[in-house]
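User: Trehalose-6-phosphate synthase. Structure?
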Amino acid sequence: MASSFGAAQVLVASNRGPVSYEVREDGSLHAKRGGGGLVSGLSSIGPDAGALWVCSALGDGDREAVRRGVGEDGVRMLDVPADVHADAYNGIANSVLWFVHHMLYQTPVEPVFDAEFRRQWASYEAYNRAFAEALAEEAAEGAVAIVQDYHLTLVPGMLRELRPDLRIGHFSHTPWAPVDYFRLLPDDIAEQVLRGMLGADRLGFLTRRWADAFTACCEALVGGLGGTETGVHGLGADADFLRKRSHEADVDERMAALREEIGEGRRTIVRVDRTELSKNIVRGLLAYRELLATRPEWRERVVHVAFAYPSRQDLAVYRDYTAEVQRVADAVNEEFGTAGWTPVVLHVKDDFARSLAAYRLADVALVNPVRDGMNLVAKEVPVVSEEGCVLVLSREAGAYEELGEDAVVVNPYDVSGTAEALHTALSVPPAERAERSKRLAAAGTALPPARWFLEQLRALQG
Ligand code: G6P
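Assistant: Predicted structure:
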């Protein structure tokens, strides 16, 4: 058997990897490295230490890279057939599991688990199997493999069968659904998901609340956790990276341009999100509208800087949501705008440097998701904001567990309550605001990505 083992001592598996490729007009491939907690976490170990990241080819560029044998050290991209990936990613992961954990269904008519769902589920199984097989092939004897997120819930169980010698972890970056909601899934599928995850030695969650919800599902549906441990690792923002990156020249440039758009002497309410249903962008805009309607003293004196970047545009419901965000922003500008004042500055083209510029200018950060695993924006803005910011934070974000005490907390469905919270936040005196922001920044950076990852690795290595 020994000859069939691979060389990697530490493996990470995720749908989206650290690099993506684009085919340029001249036919050359251009590699783009992504950011995010997992990227900096794994790079703290690196390929030299035998770390390998198994991820999926996601677009034509990635597939072309796999075909040409182009790649990076420490990354293995799996070229699963495009239709299988589409069913697994769009059909099951993003339209079913994401919806269940974020409780996004319009339940009078959704979900519908029919033959089409069963067909897509078979692709989800095949997709998970491709990952399990690649990990089994690459892992050294006794290696540690940490599988990421709802795209790959079946991998731990499949990998356990192929390679009982491995230490297997799984980390959920999403919330976990409460039992009654999780049971929307057909019984056999719910059970398969739980048993798949319980194939791991250890399951990581972002907050105690999500870990407890998972445990409750296991107790109700499969008789408990068996021998699997759970652990909570509240991923934090990377203070060093953010402080440095936010003072580079491109961010200064974006800041100057944003200042022009905002206008002299005005307060800013900043939000930066993927255009994601669970982020609750529309109710945020409606709350801002209500603030302007009920507190006319803020007119001309505040601007809502809202960045809503494209996400999951293969799904019609996301395309509709994007259009709705644009429509409501336009309506607020139409209703209240004046010759010299645009109440909402909405940008929809992804631009990280501009996001950091907005963070620097933020007086108030609006983070009002209906449900969110953590929400790193809540942790990042206080680190970067120049004058300190007041955080308006949904109690349904994982970040609430760590930041709730120093934030202005909202029920994300309560638009009037959110409008009032925006008023409260804008009215906090500068000294108090700076103090609160400092405490938020400290709490939000307590577990930076590299340590977050190492903590899990150590726990698995025992
Ligand atoms: C969430 C998920 C991640 C995912 C990210 C972006 O944070 O937990 O796994 O990568 O959203 O979504 P996308 O579908 O573009 O990968």
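The CA atoms of residues 148 and 190 lie 18 Å apart. The chain has a mean pLDDT of 96.
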